[in-house]
Amino acid sequence: MKYSIISYSFRRSFENGSMDIDGYIDFCKENGFTQLDPWMKHLEPGLTDRGWLASVKAAGDATGLPFGCVAIDGGHIYEPTAEERAKRREVANAWLDVAEFLGASQVRIDTGGSDEMTDEMLAIIVDGYNDLIPRAQAKGLEVIVENHWGPTKHPKNVVAVLEAVDGLGLLFDTNNWAAGEQELGWELCAKYASLTHIKTFSFDANGNDPSVNLSKAFRLLRASGYSGAWGIESVPHDGDERGAAVKTLALIKRELGVKE
Question: What's the CATH architecture for 3-256?
Fold first, then answer.
C-alpha cells in the first residue's frame, strides 16, 4: 500500500514557522507515509533557485521517499481570454520543470472556469490539457485534475472532462463537491481515480470523522480497482495538523484492513 499527505494539510504549521519543507519530509518518513505530495506554495523558492530545490530533492532522497504529486495552483487551464490563458500556461510549464527536477510522478492542474461549464469552456479546457499532457508525459509526469473548484465541483463536469481527454487522471477528493452531490461524485468518479485526498475535519472516540460516511467512498474506490496512493488532505477544525494526519492515516488503514 502507498500512503501520502499533501503538505497543504500543514499550511498553518508552515505559516507559523513550526514546520518547513524539510520538517514535512521528516514527518512523512517518521509516520509511515510512502511518498511526498508537496503543495506548490511550499516549493516556491525552487522556481528561481535550483540550488534550494536540489536540497529539497536531497532531503527526500535521504529518507527514501519519492516525490509523488505536486499540487499546482495558478496554472489552471481556463481563462476567458487567450492572453490570460497563455499566462496560466506559463505558470503550469514552470511547475512541470520543478516537478521533473524532483522526480515527481504526478502534477495536479485545475480546469479553471466558472461553476457552470459551457460547451465553449469545455472545448478550451480540453484543448489546454491536450497541450499540456504530452509535455508532462515527456517529463515522466501524469497530469491529474481534481474535483476542486469551479466546474469540477459537479460530478457530471468532471466526467465530461475526463472522458474527453486521453491521458488525464483524477485526484479524487472525498469532500470538494457541490452541496448534495458528494455521494454522486463518489459513485461516478471513483473509477477514474489516480490519487485520493481522503479529507477529514474532526474525529470521534473511534477515530472516525463523524461528519461524513467515508466508508462508502472506500468501498467504491476498492470496488473500482483503485491502486494508487491513498492520499490525505486533513483540515482539522481543532488546528492539530500533525494529530489529524496520524489519525487519518490510521482511519485509512482500518478501512483497508491493514494490520500494523
Answer: Alpha-Beta Barrel (3.20)
Query: Percent of the chain having pLDDT more than 70?
Result: 100
- Tell me the C-alpha to C-alpha distance, in Å, between residue 68 and each of 33, 40, 142, 155: 11, 12, 10, 25
Q: List the domain boundaries for the chain.
A: 3-256
Distance, C-alpha 167 to centroid of its chain: 17
Per-residue model confidence as pLDDT tens digits over 126-163: 999 999 999 999 999 999 999 999 999 999 999 999 99
Q: What is the pTM of this model?
A: 0.97
pLDDT digits (tens, 9 = 90+) for 174-224: 999 999 999 999 999 999 999 999 999 999 999 999 999 999 999 999 999
pLDDT at 94: 99
Rounded to 5 degrees, φ, ψ at 7 are -65, -15
Q: What is the SS3 string spanning 184-243?
A: HHHHHHHHHEEEEEEEECCCCCCCCCCCCCHHHHHHHHHHCCCCCCEEEEECCCCCCHHH
Beta pairing, strands 3-5 & 142-146? unpaired
